[in-house]
Amino acid sequence: MCLDCEFMFRDRTRLTRPSRCPHCRSEGISAPRYGIDSLGSGSTHANTKASQQKDARKGSL
């Protein structure tokens, strides 16, 4: 949302944060209300846990 004119960024298709308001050209944009976190190398939580267990077993040998 624009902090100056209260323009709402609805139906936005770009994933990047807007730099300016298209209505008043202000740079005062509020922080996004939600975001997308990546898992990094594409591993899932279960795969990460299994990998940690393998590493723990290797260390005990």
What does this structure look like?
The protein is an all-alpha fold. 25% of the residues lie in helices and 0% in strands. The chain is built from 1 helix and no strands. The protein has one helix at residues 45-59. It is rod-shaped. The termini are far apart. The model has no long low-confidence stretch (mean pLDDT 77).
Shape: rod-shaped
User: Count of helical segments?
Assistant: 1
User: Overall mean pLDDT score?
Assistant: 77
Poorly predicted sequence stretches spanning 5 or more consecutive residues: none
The profile of the biggest β sheet is:
none
Q: Any descriptors?
A:
61 residues; mainly alpha; 1 helix
Task: Give the arrangement of secondary structure elements.
Blueprint: H1 45-59
Task: Give a brief rundown of this model.
This protein is an all-alpha fold. The chain has one helix and no strands. The longest helix is centred in the C-terminal third of the chain and has 15 residues, at 45-59.
